[in-house]
Each structure stands twice: as C-alpha cells, then as structure tokens.
C-alpha cells in the first residue's frame, strides 16, 4: 500500500525535521527559484496583468456566489451530452463511485491524469483495496508513485527530488510496475523522460478505464477542461473506453466565454508559459470519438464548509497554479511534506482548515492538532497574495483562521501555555497596583540579569538568555531583552515627584 498523509505530525515538528535536510533545501531552492524567474518574465509581458487578475477573480467569485444554480445547470448540461453525473458528499462516497464503475467493467487497472481531487480523496489506496491498480501517468506523479513517496508540490509533485534521485527510482522500481528502465539509463532529463514514455505507453494502449480531474467545468455547455504540459492527459482522456472525472464543486465556471481570463492566467502563473501545450476539453460522449461512457463525480468533501465562511470562501477561487508555493519563504525551506496534505504551501495552510474545520469542531485528536497548526505555517509576508492570479488574500485568511483556532480551544480542560500567559497578562494589566508589583519584580530581575548576562543588544542592553519551560520555544531563536532595571513609573516618581502635568498624583486607575 502506498504512503499517505494520515498520522503526519503538526507543522512545527515536521518542519523542524525538514530544515535539517540540506539536500531537500537545495532541491527546493533551485526548483522554486527557476519557476519564479520564468513566471516573472512572462507576466511582465502582459501590460494589463492586474486587470487580468481582477477579471479572473471576478469570474470565480461570480461562480461561487451562485454555486447551487451553476451546479444544477452543469448537471443538466452534462446529462444532455450523454455523461452520467454522480454527487459525492465526502471522500468515501467519491472513491466508492469510481471503484464501482471500474468493477462494473471487470478491470484490474486504470490510468490517471494528474488530479489534486483524486489525491485529496486518496483514490489510489481505495482502488488498491478493491484489487485495482491506479497508474499515475504524469511524469512527476510517476516518480512519486514508483518511489512510494508523497507529493510535495501542487504543480510539480516530485520537486523535492533531483534528477540523480529520479534515475535511481526508475532503475530500481520501474520494472516492478511494468516495463523496466533501459539499461545504462543516465540522469539526463531527456533520457529520463524517454524511459517514462516507454514505460507508460503500454499502459495507455491496454487501459479500458481512465480517471481524471478537471481544471474547470463550464456550466453553460457541460464542458470539462484539463490543461497539461506532457500529453499524458490527452492519452488518458481519449484512448480508454470509459472515463471517470472527479471534479471539486468549486471548479465550476458559469459560461464558456469566462474561461478566457482563466486560461491566460493559469499557464503564466504555474509553469511560466504563455499557454499550456495541451488544453483538452470534452462534453459528455461523442459517438465514435473518445470514451463512449463518461462519468462525472461532483465532489464536496468540505467545500461547502469553506463556502459558508465569509472570509475564507475566497480560497475556493484557487485555480491550483501553485504560484504561492513558489514565492513562499516558509515552503522553500520546509517543503511540501511538512504541511501533511496534498495541498501544501500557503494555499494548503488555508484550504485544509477551511474544509476540515478547526478546534473541537475539526477532525479531532492528532489530525486536529495537525490541521490547527497550518494557519501558523506562515510569516505573513504577503508574497502569496501578490502573485495569486485570482487575488486570494491568503494572509487575511490565515489571520482569520488563527482566531478560529484560538476561539475553538477556549473551553479546553487543559489550557494552552499561550492562553495561560494571556490570562496572566490580563490579570496584571487590569489593575494598576498589580501592574506596579509586576514592574518592581521585573526591575529586580533586570538588575540581576544586567550583572549576570554575558551578551547584550546594540546599545549595551542586556538579554535575558534562554528561558526555561514554554519560554524556550521563543528564546531558542530570538534575543529577549532583559527587563529594564527601572520601570517608567519608578522613573516618573523619581524625576517628577510623582505628579502629572496637571498637578495630580496618579491613582490606582490604569488610564491615569
């Protein structure tokens, strides 16, 4: 059975381990830097790029605001074109539908187009439990599958691997899944791609059932759209007798004309190309051309939860370009596996909590802790919003979700250390006399630290060093200035005789 993200630790734990992998950090820095440069070049060619972003955001927003109406229209259009439409509330229902279709045709294998939706529901594992092998045909997905690995990027799932590692994976494991790698295979990219082409060709030619996702679904015409760069998608969408497409309900676009800005935004933002080499569109069944049995599974799996969140629903505008991953300083240093989901990076840090829920209302247990950690997996630098082709304000949603995580844990039987610290601060700051006691205590500690400290900040001010207990998490990577030996209140008493400009002596009120 292939690996899954189930049981992954919270982001801080996973990220700490990833930061220690120097090869991983080198691979990520090289790959994301290359993609960033390509994107910047082709975006700079478009004079009205910001207007194009606004247009793309408007199309997706209009679709989401009347999603129920557009979905009904999409179902009607698909049915009229000969497709069979299924509705899936969650991953289990979606997997069961695909497995049933495959079983009804007596197949033992299916070929797949790269699809985030099928990865989200872990379709490959579900089919394997039914005795059906699901073969990935995208080059990067093939690398991940043969290496019994996990995807770490939305667009380039094997971004954490370099070409020498890919060669070893092909040489050691390709023969276990079909045609083996050629003798003497090197790590030259063209040779690696050639080995994958030969390996996959026999699967394309014998497969009776293909499985895909969709980048867009046009409600007006019942058209599904897949964009890709390798041609494997075109093979999966045209050669099998049966095609099953698993489509998230947020992929709906109201009209054919509204594809225009999206198809101009997506390739530039994702692969740094002016247009995708392959853009495949199909509407149901065409007699004598392509699959003669077409199924479309409309997947919810938490999307209506996200839609109900007035701040977070903008995340459903996402067109899966991965531009936010490529500019994120956190992702570049920790990689995608640290996020514990097929949706990594900034967009994953908001999509997962929105769809799964946070706090006690979330998945609970270790899975809940992992999801709750994601809104904090960001420096809030804002680079993700600047590059998002549909203008998702990811930092805004991250802050919103952080508040939901905190609110969700207010009733915990054992409060978090942060909550205890905030309660202690509130106790001190709501009474001037208590605040005065705290200031005097901090002044004494400041004098002691000034005598004992061997380090200082610019200006000669002493640092507090490494704090014990929960404070160690903060001071382990930051300088904490020692409290001043004399508080402002004590200084005022000493220099002004305890009197304010109005001539009154301060009372016990905080606002004096």
TrEMBL record:
<dbReference type="InterPro" id="IPR003741">
    <property type="entry name" value="LUD_dom"/>
</dbReference>
<feature type="domain" description="4Fe-4S ferredoxin-type">
    <location>
        <begin position="315"/>
        <end position="392"/>
    </location>
</feature>
<dbReference type="Pfam" id="PF02589">
    <property type="entry name" value="LUD_dom"/>
</dbReference>
<feature type="domain" description="LUD">
    <location>
        <begin position="73"/>
        <end position="299"/>
    </location>
</feature>
<feature type="domain" description="Lactate utilization protein B C-terminal">
    <location>
        <begin position="404"/>
        <end position="495"/>
    </location>
</feature>
<dbReference type="InterPro" id="IPR017900">
    <property type="entry name" value="4Fe4S_Fe_S_CS"/>
</dbReference>
<dbReference type="Pfam" id="PF13183">
    <property type="entry name" value="Fer4_8"/>
</dbReference>
<dbReference type="Pfam" id="PF11870">
    <property type="entry name" value="LutB_C"/>
</dbReference>
<dbReference type="InterPro" id="IPR009051">
    <property type="entry name" value="Helical_ferredxn"/>
</dbReference>
<dbReference type="InterPro" id="IPR037171">
    <property type="entry name" value="NagB/RpiA_transferase-like"/>
</dbReference>
<dbReference type="InterPro" id="IPR024569">
    <property type="entry name" value="LutB_C"/>
</dbReference>
<keyword id="KW-0004">4Fe-4S</keyword>
<keyword id="KW-0249">Electron transport</keyword>
<keyword id="KW-0677">Repeat</keyword>
<dbReference type="InterPro" id="IPR017896">
    <property type="entry name" value="4Fe4S_Fe-S-bd"/>
</dbReference>
<keyword id="KW-0411">Iron-sulfur</keyword>
<dbReference type="InterPro" id="IPR004452">
    <property type="entry name" value="LutB/LldF"/>
</dbReference>
<dbReference type="InterPro" id="IPR024185">
    <property type="entry name" value="FTHF_cligase-like_sf"/>
</dbReference>
<keyword id="KW-0408">Iron</keyword>
<protein>
    <submittedName>
        <fullName>Lactate utilization protein B</fullName>
    </submittedName>
</protein>
<keyword id="KW-0479">Metal-binding</keyword>
<keyword id="KW-0813">Transport</keyword>
<feature type="region of interest" description="Disordered">
    <location>
        <begin position="457"/>
        <end position="482"/>
    </location>
</feature>
């Amino acid at each position: 059975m292939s690996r899954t993200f189930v049981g992954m630790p919270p982001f801080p734990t996973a990220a700490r381990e990833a930061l220690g992998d120097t090869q991983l950090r080198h691979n990520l820095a090289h790959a994301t830097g290359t993609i960033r440069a390509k994107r910047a070049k082709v975006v700079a060619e478009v004079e009205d790029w910001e207007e194009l972003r606004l247009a793309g955001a408007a199309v997706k927003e209009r679709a989401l605001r009347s999603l129920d109406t557009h979905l009904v229209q999409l179902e009607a259009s698909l049915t009229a074109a000969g497709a069979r439409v299924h509705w899936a509330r969650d991953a289990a229902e979606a997997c069961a539908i695909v497995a049933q279709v495959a079983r009804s045709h007596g197949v033992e294998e299916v070929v797949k187009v790269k699809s985030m939706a099928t990865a989200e529901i872990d379709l490959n594992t579900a089919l394997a439990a039914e005795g059906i092998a699901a073969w990935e045909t995208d080059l990067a997905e093939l690398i991940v599958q043969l290496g019994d690995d996990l995807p770490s990027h939305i667009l380039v799932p094997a971004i954490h691997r370099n070409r020498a590692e890919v060669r070893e994976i092909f040489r050691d494991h390709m023969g276990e899944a079909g045609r083996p790698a050629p003798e003497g295979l090197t790590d030259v990219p063209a040779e690696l791609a050639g080995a994958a082409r030969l390996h996959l060709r026999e699967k394309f030619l014998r497969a009776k059932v293909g499985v895909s996702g969709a980048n867009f679904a046009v409600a007006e015409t019942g058209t599904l759209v897949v964009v890709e760069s390798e041609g494997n998608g075109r093979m999966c969408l045209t050669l099998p007798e049966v095609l099953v497409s698993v489509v998230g309900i947020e992929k709906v676009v109201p009209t054919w004309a509204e594809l225009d800005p999206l198809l101009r935004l997506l390739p530039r933002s994702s692969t740094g190309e002016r247009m995708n080499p392959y853009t495949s569109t199909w509407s149901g069944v065409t007699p004598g051309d392509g699959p003669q049995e077409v199924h479309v599974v409309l997947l919810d799996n938490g999307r209506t939860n996200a839609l109900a969140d007035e701040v977070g629903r903008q995340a459903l505008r996402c067109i899966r370009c991965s531009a936010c991953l490529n500019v994120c300083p956190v992702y570049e240093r920790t990689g995608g596996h640290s996020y514990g989901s097929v949706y990594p990076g900034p967009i994953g840090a908001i999509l997962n909590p929105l769809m799964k829920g946070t706090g006690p209302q979330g998945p609970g247990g270790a899975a809940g802790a992992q999801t709750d950690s994601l809104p904090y997996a960001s420096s809030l630098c804002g680079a993700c919003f600047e590059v998002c082709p549909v203008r998702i304000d990811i930092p805004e949603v991250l802050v919103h979700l952080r508040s939901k995580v905190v609110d969700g844990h207010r009733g915990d039987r054992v409060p978090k250390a942060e909550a205890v610290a905030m309660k202690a601060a509130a106790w001190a700051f709501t009474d001037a006399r208590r605040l005065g006691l705290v200031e005097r205590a901090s002044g004494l500690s400041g004098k002691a630290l000034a005598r004992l400290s061997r380090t200082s900040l610019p200006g000669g001010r002493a640092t507090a060093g490494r704090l014990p207990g929960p404070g160690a998490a903060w001071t382990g990577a930051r300088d904490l200035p020692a409290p001043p030996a004399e508080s402002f209140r004590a200084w005022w008493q000493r220099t002004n005789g305890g009197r304010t400009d109005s001539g009154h002596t301060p009372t016990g009120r905080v606002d004096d």
